[in-house]
Amino acid sequence: MSSSCTTRFFYVLFVSVLTVTIIALGGVFGASAAVRAPAAVRAPARFQPYGPPPPPVTTAPGGFTTVVTSRTITPGGGVIGPVPVDGDGVTVTIPAGAFRAPVQITLTAPDLLAVRTAGVRRYHTVGGVGIQVQDEGSAYPATFLKPLSLTIRSRAITSASIVEYWNGQAFVKDTGATVTRGEAMAALNGDSYFTVLSPFRAAPRPGPGVPGLLGGLVGAALQLLLGLGGLVLSVLTGHI
Q1: How far apart are alpha carbons 104 and 91 in whole angstroms?
Q2: Which of 11, 62, 77, 89 could form a disulfide with 114 if both were Cys (CB 3.0 to 4.6 A apart)?
Q3: Are the C-beta atoms of residues 60 and 109 closer than 8 Å to each other?
Q4: Closest listed residue to residue 88, CA positions, set 131, 151, 160, 166
């Protein structure tokens, strides 16, 4: 082998070894840097405004779990409704100063068939609504600074209707509620579930003169038939 060929061989060998070494060292340093690199910091989530809360957990008959509407109310107060709840018009009025900070008020509808008579004999449920107040996603921790006003309007409400609320164990009569024909009003200082009950209508009884009138007509018809029968008999026997 000539000296020029030997020189070229060693030159190619040197370049090849150098290239492989550089590639190997690059891989090692790259892997080490990847291990030492800090984990990416996740950007903080954006502030999420109030939204409909999950259905409330309650043992009240009727459930009151169907969300009808949900509103954010500021310390300045406001009005929710009228909104339809089981066919009734429901309005909640929040006076200014009832809350020191914005809260979320949610109205829920009950299953009236499950509420049934709410423990009141000869009455049946004609309406109801659940009212849930939350402060930053949690139940409002205290009584309201001012009572809220609840109004339920329905043609099924009469002056004899009553309003009841759930006290945690049973429905009890709300003695502070006012009821007029077509409207029931109540005040509340905390979360609650309300029902409106009306008495069953008694079946109409026939008037006292109807049986006598029918009896008289039947008697007159019998007398007429007897008279006609006697006349026919007289003609046939030749007496007339």
Answers
A1: 15
A2: 62
A3: no
A4: 151
